[in-house]
Amino acid sequence: MKQRNFATPLVTAMALALAAAAPVHAQSNVTIYGIADVGIVGERGGADGNVTKLTSGPAASSRIGFKGTEDLGGGLSAFFILEAGYSIDTGMQASSTMLFNRQALIGLKSTAGTLMLGRQTTPYHNTLVAVADPFATGYAGTIKNTFPDWGTNVRTNNTVMYASPDVRGWNGDVAYSFGEQAGSEAAGRQVGTSFGYSNGPLVVRFAYNHKNNDVVGTPTTPAVIRGSASNKLLAANYNFGVIKLFAAVGIDKGFNAAPLGNTGNPYGGVPPTASTDGREALLGFTMPLSTGTLMASVMRKDDRTAFNQDANTWGVGYVYPVSKRTSLYGVYGSISNRNGAGYTVANNSEAGSGDRAYNLGLRHNF
């Protein structure tokens, strides 16, 4: 054990939580879970040249989490989730400022639905992961390559979310994130919702995201008025048995509706600009192949601003399970940018630096 060498108080706090988990587990039904994922990532085509590196979380961000439930009687239960990201290639925390950067929430669940309070993922992001993307927002083929799955489109702080129970295949959720800026109830707040149908081989879901980008002024800084942004997403998949087909379309409007994953002008020349009026579309599939799964998708980004910075992208990959919890994978993704567009081949943990990339890795769930 080398806990005495931990460098930050946040990591020390995590170690204490781990140490306390064993005795608590017997009393309060607490579970430790997580993902350890690492891969060789090769990026090509960026302004700084070719990059080959060992990366944590190309398929799914490496994480460790704690979750627990307590039966309150009468069909009501309380629960919590605390989930922290880490880099398995370095042992460092994924965030230098937050311990539980992925999720930190508490809630109540009954037959009437589930209420959750804290830091959590948005209905928009959950729809991308569970319905829209054959790569589940991971690997070099991720939907992040053109759909705006970045920033507060993914997770929000200070959030209250309600998820309905399933009624004959129909269910929905709604989330409200407080802006918490003194002097304004509207500035910085975000609202999201999704609803859909899932029955047998068919899954269909619509998601909506709306955020206010204004910043309240202070005695020393002026107010910043940026207006609102919105994202609309319609996604579906259908499992034919021999193949599972995926389709998704998105509409983004307003400042910060579609933030770029890599804002550092990775190709040089014309600076890429985040679209304030855009459309995205995806077609993809997964299918059993030998003992593994073949995944593929094609996507189109249609920027309707005067910059007309469009992009086309495709990805293909194969996941080979060596056990129920451990898999090997190989994935390749490519993007064709137009008019100085700055879309990069990302993965689940990184925005990427080029217009082509491959991932060769190992993932273990625990």
UniProtKB/TrEMBL annotation:
Cellular localisation: Cell outer membrane
Keyword Transmembrane: yes
Record-annotated Porin domain positions: 14-339
Entries under Gene3D superfamilies matching the protein: Porin (2.40.160.10)
Cleaved signal peptide residues: 1-26
Keywords recorded for this protein, A-Z: Cell outer membrane, Ion transport, Membrane, Porin, Signal, Transmembrane, Transmembrane beta strand, Transport
Pfam family, one: Porin_4
KW Membrane (keyword) present: yes
Superkingdom classification of source: Bacteria
Matching InterPro entries: Gram-neg_bact_OMP (IPR050298), Gram_neg_porin_domain (IPR033900), Porin_dom_sf (IPR023614), Porin_Gram-ve (IPR001702), Porin_Neis (IPR002299)
Membrane topology: Multi-pass membrane protein
Assembly description: Homotrimer.
Protein name: Porin
Organism per entry: Duganella zoogloeoides
